[in-house]
From TrEMBL:
Its EC number is 3.2.2.31. Belongs to the Nth/MutY family. Residues 35-186 form the HhH-GPD domain. It comes from Flavobacterium gawalongense. The keyword Iron applies. It comes from the Bacteria. SUPFAM superfamilies: DNA-glycosylase, Nudix. The gene is mutY. It catalyses: Hydrolyzes free adenine bases from 7,8-dihydro-8-oxoguanine:adenine mismatched double-stranded DNA, leaving an apurinic site. This is Adenine DNA glycosylase. Pfam families: HHH, HhH-GPD, NUDIX_4. Adenine glycosylase active on G-A mispairs. MutY also corrects error-prone DNA synthesis past GO lesions which are due to the oxidatively damaged form of guanine: 7,8-dihydro-8-oxoguanine (8-oxo-dGTP). The keyword 4Fe-4S applies. Its cofactor is [4Fe-4S] cluster. Keywords: 4Fe-4S, DNA damage, DNA repair, Glycosidase, Hydrolase, Iron, Iron-sulfur, Metal-binding.
């Protein structure tokens, strides 16, 4: 029996019941694919359900303001995905009358849609014969065929896409694409897959050569930058505080945060309290400064590790345009700040 037949039979027996699989609506499929980039299905599902409830059509998403979108996205990370999602919804609603492009080539022209997402929408919505290539596909094919190509290399995607194209049934590419991704997610997992129950255990070359844990090959190392954030939680006599919007490009663009002192290393109480006096002493009479968390909260992003401390700064009088704790919770924050607000304010 061929690879694709075995794979599809496995899929039909084992597939998860996911809402975006019960439709060919490109809007729902696009939403799910953007949300599931860098995100596990279990984590992404509640967000998908919240988004489709709040914005049932591309017109609803287009009409929303960016802060609404970012607030609903809060906790999913990689916030540029949400901003691009919103801009693309506006483009589709306003320029394309709400109709998504129907081909892989035209889908690629939309902001935030790369080769993988375009292929997913084109095959799942329109049954176009185009292979999807994500981490699951790299893993399944590299193990089954014992391919030692470095998947971090620029040429790897082309090589694996050509192989997947050869293998897929041309009359039903959608089910093949769903099947190979699901197989990688559930069976041919990154670490310690249970090969004893695998439908391919008689034909997988990596298993025969005892190389399953060595594939796929990925040699590109990501440089991680350490950053030290000190957030100042000002508190006036009315229990109001202040926040600011991150307008610079980079992490958390257009999300909100408390006033920030970023340092080169982890600094002690004396250093931070002196800096607070310099930054705020001319505008406010500072009564006290206290460390909210003695140990830094380490928040890991793909390319940065943030060491975060919160400092409670009590001030005399009232903050101009201060925000109370109820209104504070309406703003979109990075999840680490949101968690602090929920737990400690």
């Amino acid at each position: 029996m061929t690879f694709s037949n075995l794979l599809i039979q496995w899929y039909l027996r084992n597939k998860r019941d996911l809402p975006w699989r019960n439709t060919t609506n490109p809007y729902s499929i696009w939403l799910s694919e953007i949300m599931l980039q860098q995100t596990r299905v279990a984590q992404g599902m509640p967000y998908f359900l919240s988004f489709t409830a709040a914005f049932p059509t591309v017109f609803d998403l287009a009409k929303a303001n960016e802060e609404q979108v970012l607030k609903l996205w809060q906790g999913l990370g990689y916030y540029s995905r949400a901003r691009n999602l919103h801009k693309t919804a506006q483009h589709v609603a306003d320029e394309l009358s709400g109709v998504f492009p129907t081909t892989y080539k035209d889908l690629l022209k939309l902001k935030g849609i790369g080769e993988y997402t375009a292929a997913a929408i084109a095959s799942f919505s329109y049954n176009e014969v185009v292979p999807v290539v994500d981490g699951n596909v790299f893993r399944v094919l590299s193990r089954y065929f014992d391919i030692e190509t470095n998947i971090a290399a620029a040429s790897a995607k082309k090589e694996f896409a050509a192989l997947a194209f050869e293998l897929m049934p041309k009359d039903n590419p959608a089910i093949f694409n769903q099947a190979i991704m699901e197989f990688g997610a559930l069976q041919c997992v990154p670490k310690s897959p249970n090969c004893s129950i695998c439908v391919f255990n008689g034909s997988c070359v990596a298993l025969q050569k005892n190389k399953v844990d060595q594939l796929p090959v990925k040699s590109k190392k990501l440089k991680v930058r350490n950053r030290f954030f000190n957030y100042l939680v000002l508190n006036d006599e009315n229990n109001n505080t202040i926040i600011q919007k991150r307008i610079d490009k980079g992490i958390w663009h257009n999300l909100y945060e408390f006033p920030l002192i970023e340092t080169e290393k982890e600094e002690d109480f004396d250093f931070i309290s002196t800096q607070i006096q310099k930054d705020f002493g001319t505008n406010y009479e500072i009564i006290s400064v206290a460390e909210c968390n003695e140990k830094s909260i380490i928040h890991k992003l793909s390319h940065q590790h943030l060491y975060i401390k919160f400092w409670k700064v009590n001030i005399k009088g009232a903050i101009k345009n201060g925000i109370n704790s109820t209104d504070l919770k309406m703003f979109p924050f990075p999840i680490v700040i949101h968690n602090f607000i929920e737990k400690d304010l």
